Amino acid sequence: MDSIFKVAPSILSADFCNLQRDLELVSNSDFVHIDVMDYHFVPNLTIGEPVVERIVEVVNDINQKNKNGHVLFTDVHLMIENPDRWAENYAEMGVSSITFHYNATSAPIRLARRLRSLGVRASISLRPAESADGILDILDEFDMILVMTVEPGFGGQKFLENQMNKVSLLRCAIEKLESTKRPILQVDGGVSRKNVEMVAKAGANATVAGSAVYGAQNPREEVEIIRNLGSSAFAASWKR
Ligand code: DX5
Ligand code: ZN
Questions:
Q1: pTM for the whole thing?
Q2: Domain 6-237 belongs to what topology?
Q3: Is any ligand 1 atom within 6 A of the Cβ of residue 211?
Q4: Which atom of ligand 1 is nearest to the CA of 157?
Q5: 168-197 pLDDT per residue, tens
Q6: Domain ranges of the chain
Q7: Is the per-residue pLDDT at 239 higher than 90?
Q8: Residues 117, 144: contact at Cβ < 8 Å?
Q9: Cβ of 86: how many Cβ atoms within 10 Å?
Q10: How many CA atoms lie within 13 A of 228 on its CB side?
């Protein structure tokens, strides 16, 4: 996990009947982004525990076969009610990180600490209408902050540029932390090669990309293009 700017293909835009093939297709990326939806927190239903468990096995397999030492991580984006109750089940499967929503949890610090104690990275997400205020003082409790740049629920929606102020505000707060305590700042929704430089300049150092990657002629190459554009823009704007 050492590129300046990380790319997380969302398998929401993959072929659910050919998941192994579509995971192998993006083995050069940084995280596989797994969208779990429950028909309650968002008006859509995707996959749950048995499928995620199998995805973790397949990704472990990909990592073992990978000869150049590159490691593909798994991030489960829980768009579900009551993550306080369910997140632990995903942690036990050996996923690398779990992203839960700020307004779905009753105790974000408790949940993050519980996940970290299980060896899983903890990540918290804000919907477009939620300000960063509630988490500004507790950023060091998390390994990643996810700013939604669409209303969660569906792939292929239009990117919300009005979220960039929030990204910059969070980046400035993150930069004030000791370097070892700085969470990754990721955006999710409507990001492609056309606007990734904007999100990186605003301060994000990771992005989810669903339709942009899986809708491309060559998804593997698209991951590289988005990562390179993001890395240059981030490096130019935010010296480390
Ligand atoms: C939306 C999901 C996203 C989605 C992104 O609720 O959280 O991860 O798959 O897809 P694109 O990149 O197509 O907007
Ligand atoms: Zn997502």
A1: 0.98
A2: TIM Barrel (3.20.20)
A3: yes
A4: 14
A5: 999 999 999 999 999 999 999 999 999 999
A6: 6-237
A7: no
A8: no
A9: 17
A10: 7
